[in-house]
Amino acid sequence: MSEELKCWDGKYPLFIEWDKSEQMEFVEDEEALVAFCASHRLNPRELQYYDAEPVYAWEGVHIDTKELENDDGELDKEVLELIEEFEQKLREIKCPVIYWASNNPFKIPEAQLEEWYAKVKGTLA
Fold first, then answer.
1. Of the candidates 21, 48, 23, 47, which has an alpha carbon nearest to the alpha carbon of residue 105?
2. In terms of C-beta density within 10 A (0-12 exposed, 13-18 middle, 19 or more buried), how is residue 10 classed?
3. Which of 45, 96, 113, 122 could form a disulfide with 54 if both were Cys (CB 3.0 to 4.6 A apart)?
4. DSSP 8-60
5. Is residue 14 a contact partner of residue 48, using CB atoms and an 8 Å limit?
6. Paired strand residues for 5
7. How confident is the model at residue 95 (pLDDT cuts 50, 70, 90)?
8. In the predicted model, what is the mean pLDDT of residues 72-94?
9. Cα–Cα distance between 31 and 107 in angstroms, integer?
10. Cβ pair 48, 15 in contact under 8 A
């Protein structure tokens, strides 16, 4: 890569790309990262890391009302109110319902990689 990778901000969750088929693993914290690497005998220094981008309930729902519109292209008032109420309830769900890996990997500081490597190695000993 000729572009400079952005540095990890130290925040979890994140995704790990861990094999040639671009398989990704979601990890919520350092403990999960170390456990995953140990269970697959992976060296944290040889992996690619990506931000975990949250997707909230309201972002993933699209209500297609075309079939419900009258000849003037309008919705019944009650139907419109129900849709608005439903969308509001979705917005009230504050935690993400799923995460997707970002498109661009980021760089983990060498000291952090060494720390993870030592923990993985210690788990395998």
1. 48
2. exposed
3. 96
4. P-S-S-EEEE-STT--EEEESSHHHHHHHHHHTT--GGG-EEEEEEEE-GGGS
5. no
6. none
7. very high
8. 92
9. 19
10. no
Q: What are the beta bridge partners of residue 116?
A: none
| Helices (runs of H) and strands (runs of E) counted in the chain | 3, 4
CA distance 100 to 85: 27
Taking the alpha carbons at both ends of the chain, their separation in whole angstroms is 35
Q: Return mean pLDDT, the chain.
A: 91
DSSP 8-state code for residue 125: -
CA distance 101 to 74: 39
Alpha-carbon gap, residue 115 to 121, rounded angstroms: 10
Buried (b) or exposed (e) across 30-47, using 16+ Cβ within 10 A? eebbbebbbeeebebeeb
